[in-house]
Amino acid sequence: MSVLVVGSVALDSVDTPFGRATEALGGSAVYFSAAASLLAPVQLVGVVGRDYPVEALDFLVQRGVDLTGLIQAPGESFRWSGAYSYDLNTAHTLETRLGVFASFSPRLPERFCSAEWLFLANIDPELQMEVLDQVDAPRLVACDTMNYWIEGKREALLELLGRVDLLLVNDAEIRQLSGDPNLIRAARWVQRQGPRYVVVKKGEHGAFLLTPDMIFFAPAYPLEELFDPTGAGDAFAGGFLGYLAQAGAVTPDELRRAMVYGAVMGSFAVERFSVERFVDLAPSEIHERVRAFREMTAFEHPLLESARV
Amino acid sequence: MSVLVVGSVALDSVDTPFGRATEALGGSAVYFSAAASLLAPVQLVGVVGRDYPVEALDFLVQRGVDLTGLIQAPGESFRWSGAYSYDLNTAHTLETRLGVFASFSPRLPERFCSAEWLFLANIDPELQMEVLDQVDAPRLVACDTMNYWIEGKREALLELLGRVDLLLVNDAEIRQLSGDPNLIRAARWVQRQGPRYVVVKKGEHGAFLLTPDMIFFAPAYPLEELFDPTGAGDAFAGGFLGYLAQAGAVTPDELRRAMVYGAVMGSFAVERFSVERFVDLAPSEIHERVRAFREMTAFEHPLLESARV
Questions:
Q1: A233 Cα to chain B: minimum distance (Å)
Q2: How far apart are CA A11 and CA A97, in angstroms?
Q3: For strand B19-26 and strand B207-210, is the pairing parallel, antiparallel, or unpaired?
Q4: Is the CB of residue B17 less than 8 Å away from at least one CB of chain A?
Q5: How far from the centroid of its chain's Cα atoms is residue A41's Cα?
Q6: Is A240 within 8 Å of A254 (Cβ atoms)?
Q7: Which residue of A has its CA nearest to B87?
Q8: Cβ–Cβ of B301/A309 closer than 8 Å?
Q9: How many Cβ atoms from other residues are within 10 Å of residue A141's Cβ?
Q10: CATH of B3-304, one of 3.30.830.10, 2.40.110.10, 2.60.40.420, 3.40.1190.20
Q11: Which of A3, A81, B101, B293 is the most exposed, fewest CB within 10 Å of its CB?
């Protein structure tokens, strides 16, 4: 029931109107693991430089994240710095320094190859496929991507899409990928490229899941104080995949709940800088927020009493 | 259980990438009535010029819309023309000709003064208050507004807000009104000005309701073909108020259902030009869409089995 994630392990410097974090834990694999490990064991594949404070990842290890696949290589760690203006909706990248990530060639520890749940976080689609090639028989393969690969590695990305079950992207990315401003049509276009399941993350507007049989909407948790949106999408993916790995099945009902866990984890991510909110997050806090999502969306109706849901 | 609406009765000319409508039925009171009258009787207050094709409103009369309060005055009818680009998110106003609307001074027929449910659609806040002054003891007063009044009649608008129970606005409007980009904080700011209930309409991203005790989210119905977004917000208001008038109570459960009926009616509005979709809309189509909203948002969870909702 482990989830395998490959992605970036970075040091982020983030400027927001509410404060500043310097060289904080970041990267898609870190955010994903911080969220997913609250629900299921996680195996992480990535690379850092000699300068990375790996001991800062101890809280993940204590929670069942297997870091055997995290290589420490000669050179500098991946660094990202960005800034958010007052509306917090868009990150403005100030600098990206790939460091050791530039020559990353993921090699899976033997015991990772039997992973059943796989998340290929936002990295070069060729690397995503390299990882996929090394996994024996995954039950569910999910991937993320970004504008950089949609522009620069479109063919490899389309080849990857033909091999995955689930694409998780944000609204701008799926519009760019499909060339269609209508998000529903865009998600159907993605389905025709391969993935049965498509999750579109819309930031403050929540997220939706399209499957061949249904569509499910989860709002964003209403926060009056958003602190730092960095990593919210990866935490969403961590909640989604972590929940499915825990449930051990991909049914419509489990997928609905996975969406709620995704939204819940995304909402925690933005409440603090970096992965701080996940360090001491209690199961009761997660349950309470799941309950809040029910209360924000459920309605009864006499006409629907006999309905299945 | 009638709903009284005061607002514009107009002729709209709309250009979209999918076609063009010329001098079609439009105006906030018309969209509102077309939707609300499917759920409850409606009383309409407004003004048109001698040139208005009032017989085109016969379908409303047959459905129980009382047009006694619609005055036909010497002069030209209110005309609006606008265009939408491909993403259909923003209307570009090409021309607004107020005509007889410029000197409109609403006077309620005697029997309208006992209205229990009141919708003050988007007109000059001073006119909205004139109407409010003439209603004896409404159970619920709702209003809409727009950027034009937020800029030009802010004091009158704030005075009005002190006298209404519910404000329904879109995301851009509430940000402008409150000066806060965070929609939750913006809605709380509005509550401090008077309205217990605030509905924020977010177009393709759905809508949410904030009350002193809860928040409720309704997604937008996922349409692959949006035809003409004009009037969606007024149809939403019509579904919301029409449902409450039918239910006859303002409880948390009724408010949740009202949100769903609002979202349902908004989704019908955008499927055709003008109010065309409402002319022959069958109750079964409304019920079916309510059911679809349930299926798009409901989830079960063992942890929540004992929860109230």
A1: 18
A2: 10
A3: unpaired
A4: no
A5: 16
A6: no
A7: A181
A8: no
A9: 21
A10: 3.40.1190.20
A11: A81
CA-to-CA distance for B239 and B281, rounded, in angstroms? 13
Task: Tell me the ipTM for this assembly.
Answer: 0.92
CATH superfamily, with its number, for domain A3-83+91-304: Ribokinase (3.40.1190.20)
> Which residue in A18, A200, A217, A271 has the most chain B C-beta atoms within 10 A of its own C-beta, making it the best mutation to test that interface?
A217
Tokens 């009369």, residue? B61
Inspect the interface and report whether the beta carbons of B224 and A184 lie closer than 8 Å: yes
> Both tokens of residue A129?
């496929």
CA B243 to mean position of chain CA atoms: 12
Write the burial class of residue A55 (CB in 10 Å: 0-12 exposed, 13-18 middle, 19+ buried): exposed
Domain boundaries, chain A: 3-83+91-304
Q: What is the pLDDT of residue B309?
A: 42
Give the closest residue to B203 by CA, choosing from B175, B239, B172, B176.
B172
What does the pLDDT read at residue B21? 92
Cα angle, residue A305 at apex, residues B142 and A220 outer, rounded to 5° = 55
User: Rounded to 5 degrees, what angle do the CA atoms A55, A56, A58 make?
Assistant: 70
Is the CB of residue B189 less than 8 Å away from at least one CB of chain A?
no
Helices (H), A93-182: 125-134, 147-152, 154-161, 171-178
Per-residue pLDDT, B306:
58
Query: How far apart, in whole angstroms, are the C-alpha atoms of residue B268 and residue B279?
Result: 11
pLDDT over threshold 60, residue B185 = yes
Three-state SS annotation for chain B: CCEEEECCCEEEEEEECCEEEEEEEECHHHHHHHHHCCCCCEEEEEEEECCCCHHHHHHHHHCCEEEEEEEEECCCCEEEEEEECCCCCCEEEEEEECHHHHHCCCCCCHHHHHCCEEEECCCCHHHHHHHHHHCCCCCEEEECCCHHHHHHCHHHHHHHHCCCCEEEEEHHHHHHHHCCCCHHHHHHHHHHHCCCEEEEECHHHCEEEECCCCEEEECCCCCCCCCCCCCHHHHHHHHHHHHHHHHCCCCHHHHHHHHHHHHHHHHHHCCCCCCHHHHCCCHHHHHHHHHHHHHHHCCCCHHHCCCCC
- Distance, in Å, from the CA atom of B287 to the CA atom of B295, rounded to the nearest integer, reads 13
For chain B, state the CA radius of gyration.
18
Residues A169, A122 contacting (CB under 8 angstroms): no
Q: What is the pTM of this model?
A: 0.94
In tens, the pLDDT along B233-259 reads: 999 999 999 999 999 999 999 999 999
pLDDT at residue number B308? 46
**Cα B115 from chain centroid?**
17
Per-residue tokens: A103: 């020559």
What single-letter DSSP state applies at residue A104? -
Query: How many Å lie between the alpha carbon of A260 and the closest alpha carbon of chain B?
Result: 9
Report the gap between the CA of A255 and the closest CA in chain B (Å).
9
Q: Which two tokens stand for residue A32?
A: 């994903």
Across all residues in chain A, what is the average pLDDT?
Answer: 94
- The pair of structure tokens assigned to A101 is 């990530």
Task: Give the angle subtended at the CA of B251 by the CAs of B250 and B253, to the nearest 5°.
Answer: 125
